[in-house]
Amino acid sequence: MLYGYRVSYIIADDPSSYQTPNIEPVHIWNSSKEDIVTIRKKLLRQWFFASIELWILIFLITSIYLGSGSNPSQYTNNLDINIIDFDGDLAGYYFINAFRQTLSGNLTLHWRYKDSSDFNHNIDETQNEVEHGKVWAAVVLRTSTTRLINETLSALTDTTTTITLTSPFIITLPILVIYGDGRNSFTINNYVLPPIRSAIAVASNRYGHLQLLNTFRLGSLLVDPLGAKYQNLHPASPFVGQLATTLGYIYLYLISGMIVGGTIKFLSQFGKIHWFDLLFYRILNGFFQAFIISLIYSLIVLWFFGMNSGSLFMRYWMFNWLSIMVFGIIIVLFTINLGLLGNSLLTIFVILMLASATFQLSLELSHKFYRYGYGLPLYHIINGARHLLFNSYSHFALDIGILLIYLAVLWIVAIVTSIYWMKKQEKTIVQEKEQK
Prior knowledge:
The chain is of the alpha/beta class. It is built from 14 helices and five strands.
């Protein structure tokens, strides 16, 4: 009995001593066995439905993302521009008339004609609406432009004087264009400034032609009588800032996905862990990794961007920390807590965010459908970051508020669903043990 016990113990401790059965693989495509036929039907059925789901997903991704940039020239009338005549004379007439007669399409924006009294007859106040995002730009014809031009004409036609280059008209350009391309550099430089330049050129050409008809001794000095000075309140420079506020956040999203996947793989090697310990580790690791990664990213931006303010750096770092935590909890909620369907839902959600994030086009240049972007986190991340780096217009307090709401709500949902699935998994394991 003792000898038999020892033999059986040795065999159980060394599974390699068992003979491995030699099972030939079966071709499922030409087999007529009933069990193989069942497997083949199941495989084809699952392949068919998975392919349909994939094709629908690709259709939605392509149509949603590319649709956001479909014919933006059709929507340029959504861009508000202040047109302000401080002159109120002949030059002002040609100035206003040139904007009224701009061609439809991408040469026409939503011109808002204002009187100088709306700004207390103070040109400096015209930039306030640009600063606060009420308009994309302000085009101002300075006070007494017609009088200064007439004085210059008199000086040029007077043979007894040589005052030309020192005349007030030559020193100060009559038109002031106020904008800030830090708000959205692509939209400003491709859809806001070109129509403004075109209208100014028309006004200057027509007014200059009128003056040339009156006087033939001007040479080329009145070829461009209504010259413009362009004042960029918040330049989107250096260029690394544009990269940091567009592609940079896509990279941070991908890194967040790596953190989530790495955490799951890391925990899987330790076997069965109580659900509370798993949940505690995930929360602690998520906050800590987001803290360090946001620090690294912010330091690199600080290095290349040339950020000199310590307080600004701290704000930017904390903002990036919040952004990465929002990215992370979105990925956790969709990929872990919503199962296989969650991956497809996450892909659609990400495309919805990318299509409305204003990386290049402002939402005003897209179909009204894309205004949903105002309620998604990526829009507020991009515009909040632009505000911090370029000091451009943004409802920064609202940006922070929206991100905090997303973080709080998604964390609550993720915790509740995580507890549910973990407890369900533990219960399944216990039932399997009892059955054995």
